[in-house]
Amino acid sequence: MSDDLVLEMRNIRKEFPGVVANDGVSFDVRRGEVHALLGENGAGKSTLMNILYGLYRPDGGEIRLAGKSVSFSSAREAIQSGIGMVHQHFMLVPVMTVAENVVLGSEPRSGVLLDERVAEKRVADMAKTFRFAVDPGARIEDITVGQQQRVEIMKALYRNADILILDEPTAVLTPQEASDLFEILRTLQREGLSIIFISHKLNEVLEIADRITVLRRGKTIETVPSEGATEASLARAMVGREVLLRVDKEPAQPTDVLLEVRDLHVRDDRGIEKVRGVSFDVRAGEIVGIAGVDGNGQTELIDALAGLQKIESGTVEIAGHALTHASARAALDAGIGHIPEDRQRRGLVLEFSIAENIALHDYAKPPDAKWGWLFPKRMVQRARTLIREFDVRGGGPFTRAGGLSGGNQQKLVAAREIARDPSVLIAAQPTRGLDVGAIEYLHRRLVAERDEGRAILLVSLELEEILSLSDRILVIYEGRIVGEHTGDITEEEIGLEMLGGRETAAA
Amino acid sequence: MSTWAARLDNPLSARLRDPAATGALGIFLGAFAAFLAIPPIEARTVTWPIVVGIVAVALGIWTVSRGRRRLGWGAVAAGVLGIALGMLATRSSTENLGSAFDATLVAQTFSFATPLVFGSIAGMFSERSGVVNIGLEGMMLMGAFWGVYGADKGGSWVVGLLVAAGVGGLVALVYAFFAIHLRSDQIVGGTGVNFLAVGITGYFFVELYHNNPVPNGVSLLPNVRIPGLSGTGFFAQAIGDLNILTWASFALVILAYVVLFKTPIGLRIRACGEHPRAADTVGINVYAIRYGCVVLSGILVALGGIYLSEGPQGNGSFIFNMTNGRGFIALAAMIFGNWRPAGAFGAALLFGFSSALALKLQVYSSSAATLFQILPYVLTLIAVAGVIGRTVAPAADGKPYVRQ
């Protein structure tokens, strides 16, 4: 069997200042298999793959490609050895065409000129062979995220990759796009490619992978065939303890309407109307989830509610008080708590300490300040309490927020917002990029806040999250609410609505 | 039906129906309306400027109605201005106009535009690769001084060109080291280069030439006389006797376009300016590309500099701080032209034209002339504010790249 191995990584070790990211990691890939690398954030998956792709140099260990020992000092060498990587954040130039992005770095030439015809033809051929449905002449910024990902795959295929690394490929996709991707991966597999699939989503890994290697804190925990593995067994291996995968919650007991939105219209920064007449209520004691594909108006809706974006028309009321044209400050004072979708860019000032981040809203009020004078000691004291209450790990009040892990950053944001005792809590993508442990914590917290009598508006691109947390689900498509569900509904049904399926069916 | 469909699918007709195109056409016609009244066309009635101006306004209003407001209002403004200027021009005497608007104005425009073309193309290479080069001014000044020095000591303008290019490239290399390797702030670094250049050229000017502006008998950049184009005809006066570097600047625009947009290396340069990490992951050496582009930028802008001192206007003499902001205007031309060679060339010509016109108008009114000289700055402000289509810098322009 061992001559079947296209890749072996043995005892790989990589240290960064203060952290051992890979501590004797071993794993191998057989020809034509999909091998999943499963682990929490910070488990060392990406480090391992960056080593394989030549972006990092290992401090120890051996990499063997088809039996031959190799050592890459740049991505170019890895590419030449037949390794291709689809990065989590796409490495595409938005203003260039699909064909230009695919050939970049290994361009077909005629004389000294770039042969655009040949480039477009090769991409078109590839798209046809693998049924990618991508126009080679389209600009990257004009195509969907799912198509962009296919461009990334084409980049690897164009360079004759026979090992394809996909780093969290479904994080940005809708369920439909994800199943399209899996179809493509199976085709590639049949063509003899070996695929390394990095993920922290258990169901996906079980669906697509032949074998699964679990990493935890930089160490290989186990490699198992996906047959026979279960979500529970994998989660235990990943986290190192039993994990509650389903959210335990009582049925909601909604009371008064706390957030009332009527016929809301919002334009984005470019003047395009992104929210086109949205109306809904959120009551005290319920979680309302908004499901939708990215870019269908969710961001603008949240920003309008939080006072960050101008409202064209329509009304917003918080517990009966009009808040339509309020500033962000007024929205906060009226009782809106906002966990923004991008914790690093909008939720936190990364260069500030934990204590300073916690004081961002109430810095001008007692106890943090009086008569325009800050009291740092009180800020620190408040931070200490909240760090303990919300279990923020990785530092004290003086730790730089940017130095915390994603999960702890998100806990910090949640701590600040919830500590203000908001009547309405908007949680936008609260668990994006977090690992199972942190997700579990935040989900439990949101349910607890619901039970405290807050109205919670959950906006998420993760359908599973919407389904497991929400008491009521609204589906947003092209700026309109196209569906509302309370009872049981499957991912597929909602997925169809998210793509405007109901509208087309009705038309 | 099918022929209609085919015609609608025709890319040209689709382009013409694009409000962006009509808006641009409106702006062009507005400008054209003003020019109708002056030589060489010299329509002597006010009718034509008014007709063309009204068409421009109409196109502008249509564009506004199609949602491209800024562009549309720009066209409306251009049309109104065109009518006003056209009327003014037809009222003043023909002799006055004749002496201000003749073929030499064209030649002067090209002459004033030459250093700007070199500078803007230089800046374009640097910025397309992702490095803001505000040090153009200083590198141009270095080219101006060391070009004269080279021509003086080497005995030939060719040596001057080589020395200017070499020094420009060297200064750019130093700047590149700060901007790329040390990742220092590019605005601060570029400003440093500018002051450094004033100091260095000033010092050596005193040291080597004792502040004497004309080293005698320096070999100058020659003009290119086109055989068969001599005498007093319009074309003969306009392009019959242009400097060799002016012709080179025309070639440079075409060459820059081909290199940046039609070759693999150009694709890589632009990728480094838009998304350096993406370029890195496909094995492109971002640092090498950026170093190359910044050094090339220094070489090109220094050639613009030597034109100031060794060209027809400079007459072989260096003057303290003689660039006098032209490096910045070149940068403005590049921005005005939206980081594209043809656009930058057009902007450089426009700026050159306003300088040439200011020179001509000096005879009549020095205050009007001075007013005309601020035209480039006003236009640049308008362009940056986004009235005539929004200018979009390369996404990673000015951001140092850190490998992971």
Shape summary of chain B = globular
Cα distance, first to last residue of chain B? 58 Å
CATH architecture of the largest domain in chain A: 3-Layer(aba) Sandwich
CATH class of the largest domain in chain B: Mainly Alpha
- What percentage of amino acids of chain A are in beta strands? 25-35%
Structure annotation, total helices of chain A? 18
Q: Assembly state here?
A: heterodimer
Radius of gyration of chain B: 23 Å
Fraction of residues in helix of chain A: 25-40%
Protein model, in words:
- The complex is a heterodimer of chains A (507) and B (404).
- Chain A has two domains: 2-239, Rossmann fold; 257-351 and 400-506, Rossmann fold, CATH 3.40.50.300.
- Helix content of chain A is 33%, strand content 27%.
- Chain A is globular.
- Chain A is an alpha/beta fold and 507 residues long.
- Chain B has 404 residues and is an all-alpha fold.
- Chain B folds into two domains: 2-99, no CATH class; 102-385, ABC transporter involved in vitamin B12 uptake, BtuC (Orthogonal Bundle).
- Chain B is built from 19 helices and two strands.
- Chain B has helices spanning 2-9, 11-17, 19-36, 47-65, 69-91, 94-100, 103-128, 136-154, 157-181, 186-209, 234-239, 244-262, 264-274, 276-281, 286-310, 326-336, 341-361, 366-373, 375-385, and strands at residues 223-225, 241-243.
- Chain B has a two-stranded antiparallel ribbon with strand order 1-2.
- The longest helix of chain B has 26 residues, at 103-128.
- Chain B is globular and about 60 Å long.
- Classes of the chains: A alpha/beta (507), B mainly alpha (404).
Notable features of this structure?
heterodimer, A: 507 residues, alpha/beta, Rossmann fold, 2 domains, six-stranded mixed β-sheet, 24 strands, 33% helix, disordered C terminus, B: 404 residues, ABC transporter involved in vitamin B12 uptake, BtuC, 73% helix, globular, disordered N terminus
